[in-house]
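re: ur question from the group chat, yeah i did fold both. here u go
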Amino acid sequence: MRFFKSLLAAALSGAVAIAALTLPTQAHHSFAMFDGSQIKVFTGVVVRINPDANHLQIFFAPLDEERKAVLRNEAGEPVIWAVEMGGSAAVARDGISVNGFPPGTIFSTGLHPLRNGQPAGDRGSSGLFKCPEKTPPAAGMHCDSVEGSTAHGEGVMPQEGALAEEYNPDAQ
């Protein structure tokens, strides 16, 4: 009897260990938290990159319309947004990585904002363009208009506003 209890305990421990190891691969979210009917377009300065396996996120400070300063809140602190993309390995193939987008990099992209109003969103199918070093676009323009800019991945710079057809990767 004691042997079977030890065997049962070992089997349960093994099952718990296997479940714990497989949990991160199943910990993915729906895109329902993003408003696929809207798109916001930004040109901003990279603050940091979070290279998670499931989603790489670029945290950035949006530039003003003149492209001369970052947007600030009432306290004078930079406003920080985050754009979420595919997994780090997938977007690295497009040249989007911690080394490829160090802090201070100026880039432009579109995103579907979070429905809860927090300053973040999903890139969706928007293009992502990096400006040449220390070369912001002209007032009101984005990096795709700057000579020497680079495109990262597929897609074009979208127009900001409501979309005619809602973006919903969960339905695909």
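okk and heres the other one u asked abt
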Amino acid sequence: MEITSSSSDKLNALLSITRLNRPIGLYLLLWPTLWSLWLAADGLPDWHLIIIFCLGVTVMRSAGCVINDIADRHFDGHVKRTQSRPLVTGELTLKEAIGCFVALCTIALVLVLFTNQLTILLSFGALALAICYPFMKRYTHFPQIVLGAAFSWSIPMAYTAQTGELNHAIWLLFLANLTWTVAYDTAYAMVDRDDDLKIGVKSTAILFGKADKLMIGLLQIITLALLAGVGYLFQRGWLFFIGIGLMAGLFIYQQYLIKDRDRSQCFKAFLNNHWAGMFVFVGIVCDSAVS
């Protein structure tokens, strides 16, 4: 009975450190990847690539969470939102966490081997970004930019996996997703701002200060403009732009949520971005279906 209970506790700890029990980060990584796949294919992508990238996004997002917890294990106990993480409570050891990270990266490597040479080469960039992001908050107020690059790197990978080449227009989608990521992760960082100031961790929410809402709004406008540019370059139709319009509507709602900088409302605004990404994806799929 003790063995069963111990195994269950360890499983729960692994679910916690890989965030498989909290899928919002997975959604925010998955939607832009699917945008890219559908744009690359100009319709339905190859089924094996849909499976590879859905699984790959899942394992690499979890790997990123694990390396983040390893890097922050001495900080997390001082932050209200993170003080119950497994490396803080002792539910997992550092050795077990490192083993989990290596296992997840190995699975991701095996998956990418079923694509092509260019996509395999690009995957090393994804790994480098995933590893360096958690350490950036110690040295710069712009860790969200590194996170944005990490969350956007699957875009050129998905495109090359489908087409075998890199199109310059796909980098506009990369930039759109990067600015979107900085916007929603700044709202997320507003939740932890008071704790981060106490322990000396940097973020865009701290850098922007009282201009935080304005900067998020500007980043959201830039995101919409860049996505409109993507639609123009890929010759998308009106359904694509309806998807962007729905995203714009959600951005207005998010500005309402963060107006008083209340922690719970800022977190709610962050979570709302899942729907923004999904609406853009639905717009791309519907537009591809009728064009």
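fwiw on the second one: The CA atoms of residues 128 and 150 lie 9 Å apart. DSSP finds 13 helices and no strands in the chain. idk if thats what u expected
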